[in-house]
Design a protein that fits this description.
The chain has about 325 residues and is of the alpha/beta class. The chain folds into two domains: about 140 residues, NAD(P)-binding Rossmann-like Domain (Rossmann fold, 3-Layer(aba) Sandwich); about 170 residues, L-2-Hydroxyisocaproate Dehydrogenase, Chain A, domain 2 (Alpha-Beta Complex), CATH 3.90.110.10. It is about 45% helix and about 20% strand. The strands form five sheets. Strands 3-2-1-4-5-6 form a six-stranded parallel beta sheet. Strand 10 and strand 11 form a beta hairpin. It is globular and about 55 Å long. The mean pLDDT is about 95. Bound molecules: nicotinamide-adenine-dinucleotide (NAD). The site of nicotinamide-adenine-dinucleotide (NAD) has 33 residues, from helix 1 and helix 4. Its main location: cytoplasm.
Length: about 325
């Protein structure tokens, strides 16, 4: 038996751009009363903990400190953001070997402490690394998942909201499959407050559906490349996405989120980790939601799964 989980505690492994932005966002969220920052660069973790703690008088009291895997062992959620990020021109899949090596030094440290909480993977390629974390940890599938296309879905809602002049929270549309180049915009179920997206487009004076859907899906897919080319890394959008997932877990809210999770047969997908909508609550991934897909979306989803399976099959996880 591992240490009993402290529901008000979170750990972040990797305190670079993404880890520190996530820590800053979570500090302001009021979700946790204790936050441990772990990094191979201990000074970095200590510096981030101090800097973020100095904002506490403007938020709510909590204990923020740099620590190690013993300190993380009773966290309700361990968020892993450690690893190399994309350089301009690199795809997420290009990072795989570097980051698998890093995961081999992190995940066993968590597993050997019989960790009982939720392991949330953010490092890229997130689908492959979530699968790696699942295998290396031996933890149950519901407690190991990745942020997947939660961020891409936020980008999709934002861009559609801008296009249609409507609050992105009224846009119900999602990206599924790989968090990467083979991701799929699920247009067939996209709607704005229950109105099919094409109908809403026409109400707003947009009639070029084929051209617009192609352009918007491309913009979503290329968002990270554009941001990386301009400012070297992306971190605020993912930090907000991680906060949303943490809220779902800590408050047992059970939203449907496209997290990256091990597939058990919905739409005929097996033995692959990718993003499909799931109910997320205190037990992690609680239910895989069989949302309808068009034939074309289904075919592209299987192609995305095949691409991920091929990469995973090449890895040496011994
Ligand atoms: N899933 C998403 O939507 C999403 C979005 C943005 C970035 N990312 C990914 O997040 C990861 C981090 O990106 P970043 O911009 O913060 O990179 P970064 O280089 O700024 O930070 C990485 C951090 O990991 C630490 N680290 C390296 N090896 C470690 C180890 N063995 N143990 C503990 N810490 C270790 C480094 O010291 C560094 O502080 C990348 O893989 C990036 O592609 C994912």
């Amino acid at each position: 038996m591992g240490a009993a989980v402290n529901d008000r505690k979170v750990a972040i492994v990797g305190c670079g751009f993404v880890g520190s932005a996530t820590a800053f966002t979570l500090m302001q969220s009021g979700l946790f009363s204790e936050m441990v920052l772990v990094d191979v660069d201990r000074d970095r973790a200590e510096g981030e903990a101090l800097d973020i703690a100095h904002g506490m008088p403007f938020a709510a009291p909590m204990n923020i400190y740099a620590g190690d895997y013993d300190d993380a062992a009773d966290a309700a959620i361990i968020i892993v953001t450690a690893g190399a990020n994309q350089q301009p021109g690199e795809t997420r899949l290009d990072l795989v070997h570097k980051n698998v090596r890093i995961f081999k030094s992190i995940i066993p440290e968590i597993a050997k402490r019989d960790y009982e909480g939720i392991l949330l993977v953010i490092s890229n390629p997130v689908d492959i690394l979530t699968h790696v974390a699942l295998k290396l940890s031996g933890m149950p599938e519901n407690r190991v998942f990745g942020s997947g296309t939660v961020l891409d879905t936020a980008r999709f809602k934002y861009i559609l909201g801008e296009h249609l002049g409507v609050d992105p929270r009224n846009v119900h549309a999602r990206i599924i499959g790989e968090h990467g180049d083979s991701e799929i915009a699920a247009w067939s179920t996209a709607n704005v407050s229950g109105i099919p997206v094409n109908t809403f487009c026409e109400l707003r004076g947009h009639f070029e559906h084929d051209e617009s859907t192609r352009r918007i899906a491309e913009d979503v897919k290329n968002s990270a490349y554009e941001i990386i080319a301009k400012k070297k890394a992306t971190y605020y959008g993912i930090a907000m996405s991680v906060k949303r997932i943490c809220e779902a877990i800590v408050r047992d809210e059970k939203p449907i989120l496209p997290v990256s999770n091990y597939q058990r047969g919905v739409h005929g997908l097996y033995d692959v980790v990718l993003s499909m909508p799931a109910v997320v609550g205190k037990d992690g991934v609680e239910y895989q939601v069989p949302t309808p897909l068009s034939e074309d979306e289904q075919a592209r989803l299987h192609a995305s799964a095949d691409a991920l399976r091929a990469v995973f099959a090449e890895l040496d996880l011994e």
